[in-house]
């Protein structure tokens, strides 16, 4: 499934490239893109439309993720790593939808559940594994690309 997702993203970028270059978007191209993406959404392998939900008033970007995904309640952040172990503490604030969309959540790139098959599991299982994984850093304290964050948003 990881290869399918990569191919899909590549196809999407090629379809969107003319619009990015200032060319007029063709309705047929948009419909073809939507039709090619829908099977992945139906199988819960790919998700989208987070900002559409915000536009519809169904979620708010500043809201904590735990408001919509309760498994994220009481998440911890790594305070210290030593040879003896890892010390965890509560983050200053829970991760927000904004954090997962902007890669400032502290979520790792992936969870142990995804090794060795990144993007090979349904988003529901992946998100549950991220909720159990300590944050690598305090939310809002820095930027680091996180596949886990994008999957959580999905």
The pLDDT mean sits at: 82
Shape: globular
| Beta-strand content estimate | 5-15%
Radius of gyration: 17 Å
Q: Structural class of the secondary elements? A: mainly alpha
- Number of helical stretches of at least 4 residues: 6
- Structural domain tally: 2
Low-confidence stretches: 13-23
Order of adjacent strands in the largest pleated sheet: 1-2
Largest sheet: 2 strands, antiparallel
The number of strands is 2
Distance between the termini: 16 Å
Classify the helix fraction into a percent range.
Answer: 40-55%
SSE string, helix = H, strand = E? HHHEEHHH
Overall description:
The protein is mainly α. The chain folds into two domains: 2-46; 54-153, no CATH class. It has six helices and two strands. The protein has helices at residues 2-20, 27-42, 50-55, 97-102, 123-131, 147-153; strands at 77-82, 85-89. The chain has a two-stranded antiparallel ribbon with strand order 1-2. Strand 1 (77-82) and strand 2 (85-89) form a beta hairpin. Helix 1 runs antiparallel to helix 2 (27-42). It is globular. The protein starts with a helix and ends with a helix.
